[in-house]
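Feature request, filed as a ticket because there's no other form

It would be nice if the structure record came with a short human-readable summary line next to the tokens. Right now we just get the raw output. Example of a typical job, pasted below so the devs can see what we mean:
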Amino acid sequence: MTVGTPVTTTTTVPPTTVPTTTVTTVVTTTAPTTAPTTLAPTTAPTISGLPVADFALTTPSAMGIQIIDASANADSVRYDLGDGTSTAYRNFRYIYWQVGTYTITLTATNAAGSSVKTVQVTVPVTALVTPTPTPVVTPTVTGTGASFTALPVTSTHGDAVKFTVTPALGKTIQSNWWTFDKVNHYGTWNSRDINPTFFYPKKGDYTILVKITYTDGTTETVERASYIKSLWASRSI
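Raw output as currently delivered:
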């Protein structure tokens, strides 16, 4: 086989714990230009010096996946998640927000060349989530997670509700994105302040969500359902 010609193997594996209809794996290894000029026809996809792309895939939820990278001899990796999102994280969780079949492509690279592995996952129709947030890759976070508090949690007309976030143990916050009503005003009642203040304009129970980006590049999402109760009512003059 001429140098530079991909050697491809294709394996079809039935789904196990993942809520998918089909998991199809394809591994492609590209030989370096400095390799010998020919290879025996029976040579396996693993070529000496090249990386081997590999990862373990599970689905902790109907719409979510978790990837643990198992690539060998790779200086860097890049995951294309099939919906326009890509990441260089090796171990992470991800949530798809649209029904469909997605091809996850891992490219492992080193100085000698590259190797590619693809896996298809299908998101079931019954798992559709509304409303549709922006997908976010969440690296696996160890240790104590982040949290936030608000004061007061029960507000009346004109009260300013102050939110204060505490980062995960050993982490430093770079930026925050808040929504003060995840259910009905996900994209409008927002703030990018680290510790924001918000005035609720009407009566109701509100679910609060904050997406935290740390200085090391990891992210974390914290949500508190029906956390704020607003007793808003018009005042007489």
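Something like this underneath would help us a lot:
The longest strand covers residues 219-230.
The radius of gyration is 23 Å.
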